[in-house]
């Protein structure tokens, strides 16, 4: 077993100042050394059309573009290097897991990936101009999942990284949705417009409890209503990997349980149970459960826990938006792995 933690970072103010704060904070961290090593590989693996990325950000998320510029200043990097490393354009993504369940006033998710990819940052951000958001960070400006001030919840599940094309990766697309959209209908529309690098399911849930499971690949998008999602497409099976038994089994379990769950706490406990059918300990295979999160759009409550069989921290996003600080500074948990966690072990 290994201890793991996530810093709770709260910021109110301009996007560029938020970016600068994150860059300055990152530059003094263990995670920074890992990112510098990763950068040597990423320079060789993909090319970024700087003008195209800038134009897309200025069109869809100008505030996040300001955040990128602030991040560059805080890191003391050229903007071009920050765009290449953190914008999400053309970047790589390894195989991963993840399971999502929605129900009566809740959106629940297990984030399953390799511990060496985790950043240990849980962010509450209320911009001077724009939409406030809450959720774990990924690739600094991206989000693994999240909720915004309108109650829109977003999470993604990996399907396939074969045959990638020009586009953004999942955590950047999630940030675009949280920055721009107020409801599920708007999110579906935006995902149709944005270019996708790989094939992922995106589950969208809003305050009216409208849910969409969006099957998105570089070659097309389909969507359907539903309350459970894992790691394969049902409407575009030609995009799937060959081995789907685990994903199909988890989907069946989620659908069966969805009929029984009554509260967000029950949903959290179901996904977080290390002896259950959904929690995964396959960390070395890139599919171990690192965090469980539940968002309640109506109440603004967020349950978040690291590792399994944990008591989640509770944060009232609605109260935070009114100016009340979240008094939790760090979330602590344990995961059953010996894998390196760069922001802790580097």
Give a quick set of tags describing it.
7-stranded antiparallel beta sheet; Penicillin V Acylase, Chain A; globular; alpha+beta; 11 helices
CATH 2nd-level architecture:
4-Layer Sandwich
Structural class: alpha+beta
Largest sheet: 10 strands, mixed
CATH class descriptor name: Alpha Beta
Describe the structure.
The protein is of the alpha+beta class and 346 residues long. It has one domain (2-13, 96-345): Penicillin V Acylase, Chain A (4-Layer Sandwich). The chain has eleven helices and 17 strands. The strands form two sheets. Strands 1, 4, 5, 6, 7, 8, 9, 10, 11 and 17 form a ten-stranded mixed beta sheet that branches. The longest helix has 16 residues, at 30-45.
In short:
The protein is an alpha+beta fold. Helices cover 33% and strands 29% of the residues.
Helix and strand layout, with pairings?
Blueprint: E1 2-13, H1 15-27, H2 30-45, H3 50-60, H4 62-75, H5 79-86, E2 99-103, E3 106-113, E4 121-127, E5 133-138, E6 142-143, E7 145-148, E8 153-160, H6 170-180, H7 184-193, E9 199-205, E10 211-217, E11 220-224, E12 228-229, H8 245-258, H9 264-272, E13 281-282, E14 287-296, E15 301-306, E16 313-316, H10 317-321, E17 330-335, H11 342-345
Parallel strand pairs: 1-4
Antiparallel strand pairs: 1-17, 2-3, 2-12, 3-14, 4-5, 5-6, 5-7, 7-8, 8-9, 9-10, 10-11, 13-14, 14-15, 15-16
